[in-house]
């Protein structure tokens, strides 16, 4: 019997240049999507970037997702926070937005890493039978 799952999702080796290139490309695509959202009047600075971080974390691993999150902050600060296309001092609200994004990014990276590891375990069949664990009761 075949398991249903995300076996068709390509995975990139963590710490490879392809993983970091994927992070860079995803930030560029998210910035374009965020620009479209801003053109329609959305004021959520990091809305398009949060799902991207999860996808990069799932496909390419935690290091590339962390790179994506760290690259996102100056992109949003420069392009989407007023004054546009200029680095200026952050207001209290903008600093809070960056802090909240960073917190959510850490949670998403952890969740993506957990999902990636779960997929690795389930597809490789590395699970132990129920009686072979170290925490079993011999009685």
TrEMBL record:
Keyword list, A-Z: Membrane, Transmembrane, Transmembrane helix
Protein name: DUF4118 domain-containing protein
Transmembrane segment boundaries: 20-41, 53-78, 98-115
Superkingdom to which the source organism belongs: Bacteria
């Amino acid at each position: 019997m075949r398991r249903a799952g995300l076996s068709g999702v390509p995975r990139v080796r963590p710490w490879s240049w392809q993983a970091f290139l994927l992070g860079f490309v995803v930030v560029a695509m998210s910035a374009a999507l965020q620009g479209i959202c801003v053109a329609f009047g959305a004021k959520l600075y990091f809305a398009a970037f949060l799902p991207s971080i999860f996808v990069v974390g799932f496909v390419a691993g935690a290091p590339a997702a962390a790179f994506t999150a760290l690259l996102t902050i100056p992109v949003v600060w420069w392009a989407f926070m007023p004054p546009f296309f200029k680095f200026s001092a952050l207001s209290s609200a903008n600093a809070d937005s960056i802090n909240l994004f960073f917190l959510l990014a850490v949670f998403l990276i952890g969740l993506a890493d957990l999902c990636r590891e779960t997929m690795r375990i389930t597809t490789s069949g590395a699970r132990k039978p129920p009686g072979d664990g170290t925490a079993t009761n011999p009685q």
